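Q: Okay, next protein. This is Phosphotyrosine protein phosphatase I domain-containing protein from Candidatus Stercoripulliclostridium merdipullorum. I've checked the sequence twice, so it should be correct. Can you predict the 3D structure?
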Amino acid sequence: MKVLFICSSNICRSPYCEFVFRRMVAEDPVLSANVEWVKSAAVINRMKTIHPKAKLALLREGFSASEIDAHRPRYKRDDPVTFAEADVIIGMTRGHRFFTPRRFRNKVVMLSEAATGHYTPIPDPFLKKDIEGYYAVMDEIKRYLERYAERLRQEVLSADPKQHG
């Protein structure tokens, strides 16, 4: 499975998802055997670097400054192959589906829906004035990622009971 997280600019929410979910996959034998890659991209804005508050949130999660600084935001028009290869494209708000290239929209689901089956928009932490508000959004995202990882794990196990971990 190939998982692509999308957001507006690929500088806050989606790279946070990419880093955190990739680690969740690496730490789970069932997921690591079934998830080929985890990436992120922007569907609205082309940017050059990760947002400084996103870097702080990822440092708080234990990622190193060098691995965070190595992140280069992707943009839909610059990387159509990633969109084409993704098995699932996970957005933060329904607007992200609209900005996804039309031919890939059938693969788009919102993070809250992927995690719980119900839609709740993930606010843009870029709009939060203070770091506490920013962290609150990232903590919400992490909870959804944990639920999505568990849901995906259960789907894999029910499809192939021989897998265990």
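A: Here is a summary of the prediction. Residues 76 and 101 are 8 Å apart (CA to CA). The chain is about 50% helix and 10% strand.
Q: Noted. On to the next one.
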